[in-house]
Amino acid sequence: MAERTIRVLVAKPGLDGHDRGALVIAQGLRDAGMEVVYSGLRQTPEQIVAAALQEDVDCIGLSSLSGAHMELFPEVVRLLRAQGADDILVVGGGVIPREDIPALKEAGIAEVFTPGTSIQETVEFIRTHVRRKEVPQDIPEPPDRIDHIGIAVPSLREALPFYTEQLGMRVIHQEVIEDQQVTAAFLAVGESTVELLEPTAPDSPIAKFLDKRGPGIHHVAYRVKDVAERLRRAREAGCRLIDEEPRPGGHGKLIAFVHPKSTGGVLTEFCQRVDE
Ligand code: ZN
How far is the CA of 25 from the centre of ligand 1 (A)? Predict the structure, then answer.
């Protein structure tokens, strides 16, 4: 999974009115490829933490010239912790006496950069210390359920008794589907069905499947809310499609098939109930 660009909030807590240093840092971080949000002058720790959360930053760079860093910097860290956002790296800079640095680090400021620090050192420190966030992937909702499993059989008459007598499943529907040259028996199991598929012609797809692979699972159908959308996603991902567009599947269904090459070896059907 790709790591996203580092996002930094450059913030100036306190009352001093000079932001040239902060702006130079912000530009330096931008030049290094980071996304930088600048809070503006005279921000309270509360405002800074709110902005950091809203902007979903990885790092807050605090700049202070006012001498109030000993109160303001630790307060930012404390508020982040209170919000459960202590994975955000906090660094500080500005006019800060060296003797204050150990106490600031103790309070959770990861590093304190004094005026002699180069931008490059600051960039390197942030790069190596932020907890990188991953780019969220666009994962769809899972299918509602397995709509049905299609099983190719040479003879419904021979295959059915196992399902009806041993498993006790009921044939809820049986039909000849002309354009697929198949007789299908639908057996209910919970909210799903098993479809036993017997070919009606020797050159039908099911007959060819039986010739090549023998009786067995022909396809698995997943109940989805939008077949067209699933097809679009599958196409974009480079899946091998059998149907380029959704088509009527009988029984109030809209269906489309994805080739076994793209699914781990099982012909896969997207199945949408259009009557729901
Ligand atoms: Zn099917």
Answer: 61
CA of 271 to the centre of ligand 1 (A): 8
Q: Are residues 173 and 107 in the same domain?
A: no
Is there a single domain that holds both residue 15 and residue 99? yes
CATH, residue 166: 3.10.180.10
Question: How does pLDDT run across 99-142, given as a tens digit for each residue?
Answer: 999 999 999 999 999 888 899 999 999 999 998 776 667 788 89
C-alpha 200/C-alpha 81 separation (Å) is 69
Pairing state between β 182-189 and 111-113? unpaired
| Backbone φ, ψ for residue 240 (5° rounding) | -85, 115
Are the CB atoms for 210 and 152 separated by under 8 Å? Answer: yes
Give me ligand 1 centre to Cα 228, in Å: 16
CATH number of the domain that residue 20 is part of: 3.40.50.280
* 10 and 131 part of one domain: yes
Contacts (Cβ under 8 Å, ≥6 apart) of 69: 14, 62, 92, 94, 96, 100, 104
Residue 168 · residue 36 · CB < 8 Å? no
Separation CA 225–CA 270 (nearest Å): 9
Neighbours of ion ligand 1 (CB under 5 A): 150, 221, 269
Residue 68's domain spans which residues? 2-135
| Cβ–Cβ under 8 Å, residues 126 and 113 | no
pTM for this predicted structure:
0.56
